[in-house]
Amino acid sequence: MEQFVTKDDLRQFGLLMADTVRSAVAEAFQPKSAEAESDWLRSKAVRRLLDISAGSVQNLRTSEKVRYKKVLGSYYYNKQDLLNLFKDE
Questions:
Q1: CA–CA distances in Å: residue 88 to residues 32, 63, 78, 83, 85
Q2: DSSP 15-62
């Protein structure tokens, strides 16, 4: 017994796929709970947020454009300072 795919089947499949993709994208852009509540971001989060290299993060630190803390070998950067880099003055 053969089953044919109808236009309605394809339309329903398309709607299901669109919902699935929309949900996945929304979930990916939701901040993680630890990052959302923290005023300090790790280097990796800064690189991802600003889409910059590790060297660029280091330049921000050495030029004292952002406050940072070093805890057990990991650098943490002040989130508000990072956001202020893009404000027009």
A1: 28, 19, 19, 11, 9
A2: HHHHHHHHHHHHHHTSPPHHHHH-SEEEHHHHHHHHT--HHHHHHHHH
Which candidate, 54, 80, 43, places its Cα nearest to that of 65?
Answer: 80
Residue pointed to by tokens 């989060």:
45
Look up residue 77 and give its DSSP letter.
E
- For the chain, the farthest-separated pair of C-alpha atoms sits apart, in whole angstroms, at 72
Instruction: Kindly tell me if the per-residue pLDDT of 22 is higher than 70.
Output: yes
Q: Tell me: pLDDT of 75 over 80.
A: yes
Structure tokens at 80: 């508000």
Give the bridge partners for 41, in sequence order: 77
pLDDT digits (tens, 9 = 90+) for 34-49: 545 578 999 998 898 8
Mean pLDDT of the chain: 84
